[in-house]
From TrEMBL:
Residues 335-356, 385-404 have a biased composition (Pro residues). Keywords: ATP-binding, Nucleotide-binding, Transport. It comes from Streptomyces pilosus. Belongs to the ABC transporter superfamily. One of its GO terms (molecular function) is ATP hydrolysis activity. Residues 312-420 are annotated as: Disordered. It comes from the Bacteria. This is ABC transporter domain-containing protein. Residues 2-227 form the ABC transporter domain. PROSITE patterns: ABC_TRANSPORTER_2 (PS50893). It holds the Pfam family ABC_tran. The keyword ATP-binding applies. InterPro entries: AAA+_ATPase (IPR003593), ABC_transporter-like_ATP-bd (IPR003439), P-loop_NTPase (IPR027417). Residues 357-384 have a biased composition (Low complexity).
Length: 420
């Protein structure tokens, strides 16, 4: 587990991180989100002992990184994929990291296979694409078979197949009981990958909750209602009736109505009572991106003067406040379905397919959503055909086989080999 208590970092007058307290628990993927310059990299650097806190502390398994016994084998990280000696081959780069930590050479070949770089293992990394560099950085992070993994923007530069692979890798690692802390600006990806979120803005903690609770707390669900396009008077009539019943109506660009404040069955009844035909009556749940934009809009430092995120933010009706989440239960939404005994659930949440991959080499029971028939010897190398929507189940921590290396932060890899 990673634990930060009152973590603060100042660079001269600039306070990059202020009074951050959070825990990153094993058995889950924890997403680390925040606008540009909010302090994510600074926090990760302090976790890895690359920067000293100005105040507070951060520990891994109870120890500051620098006091961790055999730290490189307990913690792996990808901070900057470009921090590689470009004149070395991928294999030699990993071999040098392995040697620093007493990791056997065969582990290098294993991780090259895991990240899909075995065919280019003897090529100099300076010729690598952005995505190949990311894969090499991930290989370095995995080298020590660590229980705690930090990834700063791991999908940066990866193609869709690579993104899917990283998603499944993160979930697999967490399912094996490891602590996985990953920063990303890709909200759609985080929605699929993370179980839990820590969100910071201008160096301060803004949220520490499950993805589900985060979306619920920072958005308002709404209903989309559509009347026949050919009869605009029906739309007007329905709009007036909904408003009179206490609902809030906003026009959508395509002619539909966005309704908040009333449950779907009530909207249906109002339409029926007014003799208004409906072409559509559908629930809409906000995306993580919408919720994130809503929460962080006041904490963004760098913003285009011509793009004020119009259209990306879900507007609340005048005077309305987003509903508060129920701790541990998420948010019921503004149009709660009736209980089953009163007519069943009008809109069931999508169910994810119950795919289970074979057991992994580190003792995981299976990777939800991983490809059926994926080779058991290497669960990370095979992208799954579909994206699992449900959080990976936590597995008991696997015994950590001794192996592996610190990842990039252990050595200054930006310097030529001779200079180190
Ligand atoms: N070595 C440094 N000296 C001075 N200021 C720094 C230093 N490192 C970071 N900062 C400042 O601290 C703040 C936080 O930077 P940091 O890189 O941690 O943000 P971030 O959330 O990782 O940003 P991004 O999403 O753009 O990567 C920024 O204002 C940055 O300019």
């Amino acid at each position: 587990m990673i634990e930060a208590v009152g973590l603060t970092k100042r660079y001269g007058d600039k306070t990059a991180v202020y009074n951050l307290s959070f825990q990153v628990r094993p058995g889950a993927v924890t997403g680390f989100l925040g606008p540009n310059g909010s302090g994510k990299s600074t926090t990760m650097r302090m976790i890895l002992g690359l920067d000293n806190p100005s105040a507070g502390r951060v520990t891994i398994g109870g120890y500051p990184y620098r006091k961790l016994p055999n730290a490189p084998r307990q913690v792996g990280a990808l901070l900057d994929a470009k921090a590689v000696h470009g004149g070395r081959s991928a294999r030699n780069h990993l071999l040098s990291l392995a040697q620093l930590s007493g990791i056997p050479a065969r582990r290098v070949d294993e991780v090259l296979g895991v990240v899909g770089l075995h065919d280019v293992a003897r090529r100099r990394s300076k010729g690598f694409s952005l995505g190949m560099g990311q894969r090499l950085g991930i290989a370095a992070a995995l080298l020590g078979d660590p229980q705690v993994l930090l990834f700063d923007e791991p999908v940066n530069g990866l193609d869709p197949e690579g993104i899917l692979w990283v998603r499944n890798l993160m979930k697999s690692l967490a399912a094996e009981g490891r602590t996985v802390f990953v920063s990303s600006h890709l909200m759609s990806e985080m929605a699929l990958t993370a179980d839990h979120l820590i969100v910071i803005g201008r160096g301060q903690l803004m949220a520490d909750m499950s993805v589900k609770d985060f979306i619920s707390a920072n958005s308002a669900d709404f209903a989309r209602v559509r009347t026949p396009d050919t009869e605009p008077q029906q739309r007007e009539k329905l709009s007036a009736a909904i408003t009179e019943a206490g609902g809030h109506v906003l026009p959508e660009q395509d002619g539909a109505l966005r309704v908040t404040g009333l449950p779907l069955p009530r909207i249906s009844d109002i339409a029926h009572d007014g003799d208004v035909r409906l072409w559509e009556l559908s629930p809409h749940q906000a995306s993580l991106e919408e919720a994130y934009m809503r929460m962080t809009q006041g904490a963004v430092d760098y913003r285009s003067t011509i793009d004020q995120k119009e259209g990306l933010q879900q507007q609340l009706p005048p005077g309305a406040q987003p509903p508060m989440p129920v701790p541990g239960q998420g948010q019921p939404g503004w149009y709660a379905p009736p209980p089953p005994q009163q007519g069943g659930q009008p809109f069931a949440p999508p169910q994810s397919p119950p795919g289970q991959a074979p057991a992994g080499p580190y003792g995981a029971s299976g990777v939800p959503g991983a490809a059926p028939g994926a080779p058991a010897a290497n669960p990370y190398a095979q992208p799954a055909p579909q994206a699992p929507q449900t959080p990976a189940p936590a597995a008991p921590p696997a015994a950590a086989p001794p192996a592996a290396a610190p990842s990039a932060p252990a050595a200054d890899l930006t310097k030529p080999e001779d200079a180190r």
